[in-house]
């Protein structure tokens, strides 16, 4: 009779773990990305104002930020693998509840619940990657963030066609199924590894000026992502596009983001000085915003290409640059929790601000202008990220 495999044995299959990581990523954005293409229908069915509609993105992103700041405490109390499993299970519940709770209050409440689940995964998964795949951490973070954008692309492109046949309430709830699949795969993939819980852990690097700079950089950059995710489809429906076409436009943009993320994952090791890539992708984001401001109808395709390339590369780059500053798994979890926590709180303001702009003006053009100013700030910050900089080890 074969002896039981010890709990400290290696993971059963690296390929299985990588597949689980990608599937986890795929489930972290549909609860947000499916809203934009359906926003007009949701507002018609629930009576949501433009400002309240912005909350459907702002609330979960804000919740993601607050919970991510607690990542170190969550790691100590729940353990990394267990906490990730709880997070994806919460996402599945939040999606499923959107079928019966499809009023305005229910949608906002499930958005907050989904944000909690997303935050658990995002706060703990970097520590898992850093611990078990230290030599491939940058590459796996690239695949993980690409999975995040891939989920957004699928959700955005399929939202309007599926809603026409299922109804938007059932469509939003349908995303519970892949979340359940991710939870089951994660349970199997992480089953043979001793979970990490208890101990002092690493504290948030609140005393580090560089950590705050990384947080602001991530927050403004992610603000571009959340702004486009929430308001690009309604912006184009205002210009006379159909809901299906505007959803396909967002789906196309996120598909470009996926491709950009894959490229970054493949070439990142060739650029020890990340500033070369950072400046390039920020200029692409700025060019895309300029297209939306100057001639959105005529320059829709260039806007999609520039924004997709820029945002798609900036998101994984921001996390990879942050991970460059630490060498230990606990420090990686603490820094990424701090960067993502404060960053998502900053980013959460953009959809709400855009909703207010739309409510009090006839166009979202001013929102793109505000974001363009933010990108200029990022260009100034990016030049400070010279290679070799590290945070002091956490005590």
UniProtKB/TrEMBL annotation:
Protein's name in the database: MFS transporter
Entry annotated with the keyword Iron-sulfur: no
Record keyword Transmembrane present: yes
Location of the Major facilitator superfamily (MFS) profile domain: 13-390
Superkingdom, taxonomy of origin: Bacteria
SUPFAM superfamilies registered for this protein in UniProt: MFS general substrate transporter
PROSITE patterns listed in its UniProt record: MFS
Transmembrane segments: 53-72, 84-101, 107-129, 141-160, 166-186, 212-236, 248-269, 276-295, 301-321, 333-354, 366-386
This protein's UniProt keywords: Membrane, Transmembrane, Transmembrane helix
């Amino acid at each position: 009779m074969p002896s039981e495999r010890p709990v400290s044995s290696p993971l059963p299959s690296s390929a299985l773990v990588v597949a689980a990581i990608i599937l986890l990523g795929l489930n972290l954005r549909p609860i947000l990305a499916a809203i934009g293409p359906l926003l007009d229908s949701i507002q018609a069915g629930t009576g949501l104002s433009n400002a309240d509609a912005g909350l459907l993105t702002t609330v979960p992103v804000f919740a993601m930020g607050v919970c991510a700041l607690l990542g170190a405490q969550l790691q100590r109390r729940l353990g990394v693998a267990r906490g990730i499993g709880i997070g994806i299970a919460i996402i599945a519940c939040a999606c499923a509840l959107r079928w019966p709770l499809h009023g305005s209050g229910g949608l906002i409440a499930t958005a907050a619940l989904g944000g909690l689940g997303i935050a658990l995964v995002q706060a703990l998964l970097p520590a898992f990657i850093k611990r078990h795949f230290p030599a491939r951490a940058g590459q796996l973070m690239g695949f993980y963030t690409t999975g995040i954008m891939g989920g957004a692309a699928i959700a955005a492109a399929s939202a309007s066609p599926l809603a026409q046949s299922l109804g938007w309430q059932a469509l939003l709830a349908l995303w519970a199924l892949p979340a359940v699949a991710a939870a089951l795969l994660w349970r199997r993939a992480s089953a043979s590894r001793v979970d990490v819980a208890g101990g002092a852990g690493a504290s948030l690097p609140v005393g580090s000026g560089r950590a705050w700079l990384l947080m602001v950089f991530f927050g403004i950059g992610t603000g571009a992502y959340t702004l486009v995710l929430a308001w690009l489809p309604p912006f184009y429906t205002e210009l006379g596009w159909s809901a299906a076409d505007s959803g396909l436009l967002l789906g196309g943009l996120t598909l470009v983001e996926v491709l950009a993320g894959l490229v970054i994952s493949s070439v990142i090791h060739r650029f020890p000085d990340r500033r070369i890539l950072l400046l390039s992708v920020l200029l692409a984001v700025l060019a895309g915003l300029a297209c939306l401001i100057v001639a959105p109808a005529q320059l829709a395709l260039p806007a999609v290409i520039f924004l997709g390339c820029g945002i798609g590369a900036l998101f994984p780059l921001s996390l990879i640059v942050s991970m460059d500053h630490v060498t230990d798994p606990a420090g990686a979890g603490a820094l990424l929790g701090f960067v993502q926590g404060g960053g998502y709180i900053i980013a959460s303001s953009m959809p709400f601000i855009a909703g207010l702009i739309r409510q009090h003006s006839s166009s979202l053009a001013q929102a793109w202008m505000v974001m363009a100013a933010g990108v200029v700030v990022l260009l100034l910050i990016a030049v400070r990220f010279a290679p070799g900089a590290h945070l002091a080890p956490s005590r």
